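[job 4471] stage=fold_predict status=RUNNING
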Amino acid sequence: MERFQTEQPTILLLGPAGSRMQWVKAQLRGHYKVRQLCGLEPLMQCLAASGDLPGLILLDSKLPLPERAELLRRIHSKPETWSIPVLLFGMPETPAEELLGFEQGAADFIVLPLHPDIFRAKIRARLAPAARNKVTRLHQPQREAIVARRAADLGTVQDVTLRAMTGLAKTRDIETGNHICRTQHYVRALCGALQANARFTQFLSAKNVDLLFKSAPLHDIGKVGIPDRILLKPGRLDADEMAIMQTHTTLGRDAIEYAESLLDEGGGFLTFAREIAYSHHEKWDGSGYPQGLAGDAIPVAARLMAVADVYDALTSRRVYKPDLPHAVAVDIILQGKGLHFDPDIVEAFQSVADEFQAIACSYADRTGDISLSAVG
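[job 4471] inference complete, writing structure tokens
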């Protein structure tokens, strides 16, 4: 910034030699770098060859009208020179001649004779926007670096927030930590299979898929608010206990909404987490809970989690049930097409069923990890 402020801008002059041109040069000398050229082609060659374009072009109004018009046309037709102000100077013979200069594309017409201080003030006023634009170009990389750092900082805040909330969910997770890992990867596999589906292409951007993967572990965060006598019960729940257990969806939504309120505008990245926590037990036919939503009224994030969560529940052993073989679990989910699950998501699941099985093997529970808890 300091270096640029001490540099003298370049001004190009074009016009016939004479006392008027000498006067103009005398007023600018010492304040700016001044170059006088003798014709249209030399001026255009200078503009094409210059790595540091002039801040201003001054044309003597005595230039023949066709030459002046062609020069202005060519300057304004080139991306690298169109923003250079072009000023006419001289004594117009009629108002129509002055107006013609503007119509041809001149930025101003400086009528001479003029007090030297006023003349230089007009030049400074015309150079100021060009100087600001140059400073903007010089500092664009620094501004871009600042924006990139801020974006990285925001990404770090988001990741830390999600990891902290995931850690909280794990403290009361009635299943295993591997359950969280498996469901994350199941959701991502479904996203990959659905990205070519017109219903989901726009929604499943790379950014959203990443957020869905990071948000999936929060699907049961509401269970931190379920009493131990129900959460840790070593067997199936009765109807009253199940009703209480089902409130984990609302408790999860409320907890995430509270986190969003604390983060103000930075809380938008928790939207998927809130939708998953609140609606992953909804069913396509409207028979789910807590709201009884149906079809597309169920958020996409929750519909994805519904398939991932059910598959994992079916293929995981619990104290009250054995784990089902992969093929049986696949068949049960296919039977739920259009009833429990979004039909398109079931088709996507079917196309990546082998990937689900591989994920289940990669993150299999160890002996002793099996929960003694009820189904949520």
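[job 4471] summary: Residues 260 and 266 are 8 Å apart (CA to CA).
[job 4471] exit 0
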